[in-house]
From TrEMBL, chains A, B:
CDD domains: HTH_LacI, PBP1_LacI_sugar_binding-like
Molecular functions per Gene Ontology: DNA-binding transcription factor activity; transcription cis-regulatory region binding
Organism: Flavobacterium geliluteum
Domain of life: Bacteria
Residue ranges crossing the lipid bilayer per the database entry: none
Domain HTH lacI-type span(s) in chain numbering: 4-58
Keyword terms of this UniProt record: DNA-binding, Transcription, Transcription regulation
Gene3D superfamilies noted in UniProt: 3.40.50.2300, lambda repressor-like DNA-binding domains
Protein name (Swiss-Prot/TrEMBL): LacI family DNA-binding transcriptional regulator
Pfam families: LacI, Peripla_BP_1
Length: 341, 341
DNA sequence: ATTTTAACCGAAAACGTTTTCGAAAACACC
DNA sequence: GGTGTTTTCGAAAACGTTTTCGGTTAAAAT
């Protein structure tokens, strides 16, 4: 254990800790000469400031907390990637917590982060979360929060999102323009905003193009971890509505479940039924036929969210007013085989 | 900002900070009565200890650092999942850093973690890493390190691994027993231990079954982020060795690249050429034909690695001798369509 | 009535920094 | 030689805890 601290440098040089500290931090009231001596000695003794002490004194930890619903998830790991890169670039470390889509866990973890004195928090809400007191409390405590992807419209903070409704609208419009007549939707569960918005986009696109919305063509897939849901509902819809000719799925995972079933049941995609996914996961190029989907820029989302968060943190520190922003990242249709005859 | 501290409780109750602190921590020299009063007041004032101050005083941060080569990677995100779960259960937070397979980054990040005063470090080495000074230095500073998956045999610390050589040996033996005669290997780059070990397992299996090892049947795939490498080398091998009848790939990603090419080129899998992957990524069930592969227990690996690390941290704290352990997690063959005719 | 013991509490130091403020020294000017 | 100015440094407080050690009081024992 050769942990050198300020006092070691000070006594080695016969000067005070104050002077050493100031020399290292470039204060101007230290002469060039002693400053040089300090720098040299610090280097020689391999000095590294004790972050914990610095944190206590400066009241900032240069750490941000991140709460996501899951890590084993292509989209979220992309976001994480963006977060880590941008945070590192700006000199912040990041503590990750995963809520496993549980509201209670999410709440507990947020409390943990606050206690750890993180400088700010990045969150994507769990599917269960429909009460936002814990988030509002955090904001009230002057800890900046930025929400991404799975957000709550009613919380007053910065957000980084895609326009789920528009993306879904575009997807379904695309299908309509391709000539598909009976378009079903495999939606997600009822609470998350994305799920609602994508459903609304689906519905609006139908109505905008003079097609009748039929609630019986909407199936709920609320399992996020495997493609069974898509598989089973595909089976079901073909029994109940054998004349459906396209399905817009809430995620690539669901879409892949659908295609899996179709492949096994000998239902041709896209000839008999076209399939449209959402998110552009890696595996959407692995499945055959390759999946048409919406590209959801996870990496950029992580980048942007960190960037906004750190800006708010520094604004707060310097007593500048912080203005919340809602950034909407563009999405686009990735056309592949599952929708082109 | 309503951050209550010990002194707030103390003055509200007309007692000293010492007493409050002791009451909260259950010291026995505080009367039942005042202890109750303190607890109640702390609850009422919503007291949460300032971790930074505690850290400084106790000289531990209850935080562990994790350095992995990549986050957008099915295996590593599984490990991360295990790490997060076990760490949370044991009251530790985790700081994630990704090296992007770069040695210099890995080194810098380790320094960052040390400066942050993490209590221990979990690492999976980058592909470039062939110098271990930074890790040995960390250990010398009495910061426990446990390596997982991509380890260095020469570093003296605990490790959690699979037996890559044996797993590869089993895979190739399986192919041999299935009657495949000309088995190629798509290996990884030359530095990482896994890559070496899987290659050795391949070679030994051939030799053990009286088959000749031919270095011309070994192709190098050193790109870890997409399946192009597998795709291109599949193309190449079919030109150079059209009579190959099985390929053992170093990862599922490479295997999927191979199958993709075969599907496009009309080469039947497994009829003409069987394909064997490694890791059991999610997408190995998405590809058609479904991929036979080796199950690599990422979640358990994360779990175990954290468990060992925290044990070492507490042993160290209580001045017990720490004994390094090498834990080898079992793997097994997942037989799917890509190898059964 | 005195001593012993136990129960309860608090002063103070410590963890390693940062920053304010004042003091000393050096220099300049008349 | 006095006055003012600049340069350079350090003492000390502060951040919020934890823990040691001693002190006070009350109860128990003699």
């Amino acid at each position: 254990m050769n942990d050198t601290k300020l006092i070691d440098i000070a006594s080695a040089l016969g000067i005070s800790v104050t002077t050493v500290s100031k020399a290292l931090k470039g204060y101007t009231d230290i002469s060039k000469a002693t400053r040089a001596r300090v720098l040299e000695m610090a280097d020689k003794m391999n000095y590294m400031p004790n972050s914990v002490a610095v944190n206590l004194r400066t009241n900032e930890t240069k750490t941000i907390g991140v709460i996501i619903p899951a890590t084993v998830h292509h989209f979220f790991s992309s976001v994480l990637n963006g977060i880590l890169e941008e945070a590192e670039k700006r000199g912040y470390l990041v503590i990750i917590l995963q809520s496993n889509e549980k509201y209670e866990l999410e709440k507990k973890q947020l409390a943990l982060l606050i206690q750890k004195r993180v400088d700010g928090v990045l969150m994507s809400l769990s599917n269960e979360t429909d009460d936002f007191f814990h988030i509002n409390e955090t904001i009230r405590k002057n800890i900046p929060v930025v929400l991404f992807d799975k957000i709550a419209k009613r919380v007053d903070c910065s957000k980084v999102i895609i326009n789920d409704a528009k993306a879904a609208y575009d997807a379904v419009s695309y299908l309509i323009n391709k000539g598909f007549k009976k378009i079903a939707h495999f939606r997600g569960s009822y609470v998350p905003q994305n799920s609602i918005d994508r459903f609304l986009g689906y519905k609006r696109a139908l109505e905008a193009h003079g097609m009748e919305y039929d609630s019986k063509l909407v199936y709920v897939c609320d399992n996020n971890t495997d493609f069974e849901d898509g598989y089973e509902n595909a089976q079901k819809i073909m029994a109940e509505h054998p004349d459906v000719d396209a399905i817009f799925a809430i995620t690539d995972l669901v879409a892949i479940g659908i295609i899996k079933y179709f492949n096994e049941a000998g239902i041709k995609t896209p000839e008999q039924v076209a399939v449209f996914g959402f998110s552009n996961w890696f595996m959407s190029t692995v499945i055959s036929p390759k999946l048409t989907t919406i590209d959801q820029p996870g990496f950029e989302m992580g980048h942007k969210a960190v960037s906004i968060l750190i800006d708010e943190i520094t604004d707060l520190k310097e007593h500048r007013p912080i203005k919340h922003q809602i950034v909407e990242l563009p999405t686009r249709i990735i056309e592949r085989e599952s929708t082109v005859k």
